[in-house]
Automatic annotation (TrEMBL), chains A, B:
Keyword Membrane: no
Species in which this protein is naturally found: Acidisoma cellulosilyticum
MF term (GO), any: DNA-binding transcription factor activity
Superkingdom assignment: Bacteria
Entry protein name: LacI family DNA-binding transcriptional regulator
Keyword presence, Transcription: yes
HTH lacI-type domain location: 15-69
PROSITE patterns attached to this UniProt entry: HTH_LACI_2
Signal peptide: none
PANTHER family: HTH-TYPE TRANSCRIPTIONAL REGULATOR GALS, LACI-RELATED TRANSCRIPTIONAL REPRESSOR
Keywords attached to this entry: DNA-binding, Transcription, Transcription regulation
Length: 353, 353
DNA sequence: CATAACGTCGTAAACGTTTACGGACTAGTC
DNA sequence: GACTAGTCCGTAAACGTTTACGACGTTATG
């Protein structure tokens, strides 16, 4: 009598390579070879095996397979979930995930997103450690690096392949893609200056994200190039959320003389800026020009006035991240970085008309 | 000589329960028992094992463990990623994920989010099948069910424990949580009516989501209760995005006589509605009252005017989903459903003042 | 005809872990 | 002292798969 399966939700009929082999009257070795495209198997037999497998719905079980092969064919993406309700849920990521999964699955890999709450446990690296030590994935994608990023140090130490979204000072050499926030900050600021603005405020994250440094650097560079002074009072740090944008605008618009232009690092902050402008009876575009930053969410063009902000093909970004990682896994590639330009979408919020 | 590990990114020093046992001069069985809180082990030995494990950074490898135990201690969440850039990236989910992960990890489980693109492959269930057949998870969370949902039928067939967000006509009995869209639709409509509105438009998804049916049913119920006629022309179907809201508003505001109130199923549509109102020179609140639906994103209170919409403790929702699933895994619970009320947050968009 | 080469397949070991079973002690009981 | 009970631990068999190796039969080669 067959022992009941340990697996609680075992399917009724199909299960195991053994059953499949028995049903076909061949050995499990042959079945495995047939399904894995190994050479030493009769084309005729292979056909029969594949047919039977699809009929019985047999798919090799992950744990057995990866135990033996030492690879899971899963690519992890460590996703930091901010605590509480305050967070803005980056629509950005959805399409990025789509692009990544698309490329990965074409190569037999799967994307699994592992939510992480660094603040929830004593050890901020707890989840990452578990993922690595339990060998849950073959490689990792790490979105939004920080200036000093212990995650990168840890990953470098254990030597697992990964690709980072964003540069960092931490960790060893590794492949990355970063958006050129410096160029973006410079471009937007220069555009303001060219339009005649002299007092330009900027809103950036309070966090230690790398983006912040670069964005601010670009801003300063443009100021300097135009011979304008850098004023601390025109820089506001806050959450990258509508609430953060509101708080920043509240502070910045109180500065005397009042800034005539505002630059936010992310379009989510622009919503809060819009509100503060309305409260003060200021017209967005007319009295104060606004440029929202990365990213161009599905919402920005429907704001009133439509938000001028930076755009980016997030699907392509997701795809490229996957490609870089796959190349790294094939070890055909040396760790290189890619700096992606982000282009401005001109809409209404920075126009006086 | 030790053979090189098959695992590409094997850590330098630590590896395997064998090394740990050898180092302590005891058998691997004892080590395993010590780490798994099994009874038959000397407290003194247990301490030594735990100390050594944490020193060497030993954590049991997932594949070996789950192969033997027939359980992965992973809970999957199948996340449908819409194709293309058009989609609105539900900020809603971020906090939900946080709540779920929090509860699960307290019980030794982990949440893994598996992005799925049903349209990308010939078989829309491809990814779900792979997850189940490869035994990648012990249980599943399925957000946003449809009226007819093949995923539910499949899950019922294979008998894996799961909890759904949303009801459905498909599948067998299973635990679920749903938001009471019917009550929400009815409440908002009745509120409009009480404020004197007689021509009330509604924007719902074109999709076959269950939410749509219930929301519309509530809307109709309130109309009926007030003796108002139901007009097809006042119902617009579209994408649950700002663009969808814009398109819906464009159609609805052309109806003669023009509606004086608009109800959207989701606050993301409200952004598009706002824009269309502005384009027509109509004042939101004054000329046309607007109530956005579920969910109250971080943005809604910063819109101008602040959006009256339904709110929901998404963190609690995520937590409860996890709890229900855990109860189901302990098989202490029979499949029951929970209907969560969603309360209206009164702000400015539906006020005439 | 002897041998080599080839194509196809079965056998069995391995991957890392958990756990049923039994053995070796010690302590307690009559 | 013989027995039982209890404590702790080692042994070894599983879990499902992949793959190195060798065996077998057939065909080509000399």
């Amino acid at each position: 009598m067959k022992k009941p399966s340990l697996i609680p939700h075992a399917q009724a009929g199909a299960s195991g390579i053994r059953d499949l082999a028995a049903r076909l009257g061949i050995s499990i070795g042959t079945v495995s070879r047939a399904l894995n495209d190994k050479p030493d198997v009769n084309p005729e037999t292979r056909k029969r095996v594949i047919a039977a497998a699809s009929e019985l719905g047999y798919v090799p079980q992950q744990s057995g397979r990866s135990l033996r092969k030492g690879a899971t064919h899963n690519i992890g993406l460590l996703w930091e979930i901010p605590e509480g309700r305050a967070a803005y849920g980056e629509p950005f990521f959805l399409s990025l995930f789509g692009g990544t999964q698309q490329v990965l699955s074409a190569r037999g890999y799967d994307l699994v997103i592992m939510p992480d709450q660094p603040g929830a446990t004593a050890d901020p690296l707890a989840r990452l450690r578990r993922i690595i030590q339990q060998r849950q994935v073959d490689a990792l994608i790490l979105p939004w690096t920080r200036t000093m990023d212990p995650r990168l140090d840890y990953l470098a130490e254990v030597g697992i392949p990964f690709v980072a979204l964003g540069r960092s000072r931490s960790g060893g050499p590794h492949p990355w893609i970063d958006l050129d926030f410096e160029q973006a900050g410079e471009f937007a600021t220069a555009r303001f200056i060219a339009a005649g603005h002299r007092r330009i405020a900027i809103a950036i994250p309070a966090d230690s994200l790398m983006q912040k440094r670069f964005f601010l650097a670009g801003y300063r560079r443009a100021l300097k190039a135009a011979g304008l002074p850098f004023e601390r009072a025109l820089v506001a740090e806050g959450h990258v959320t509508p609430a953060g944008g509101y708080a920043a605008a509240t502070r910045l618009l109180d500065v005397i003389p009042r800034p005539t232009a505002m630059l936010a690092i992310d379009s989510s902050m622009a919503v809060g800026i819009y509100r503060r402008l309305a409260e003060l009876g200021l017209s967005c575009g007319q009295d104060v020009a606004v440029i929202g930053g990365v990213h161009d969410t599905p919402m920005t063009e429907f704001l009133v006035p439509a938000l001028t902000c930076f755009s980016l093909d997030t699907v392509a970004l997701g795809r490229r991240l996957a490609e870089i990682l796959l190349a790294r896994l094939d070890s055909k590639a040396n760790p290189a970085g890619e700096l992606w330009p982000i282009v401005l979408v001109e809409r209404q919020s920075d126009r006086i008309d």
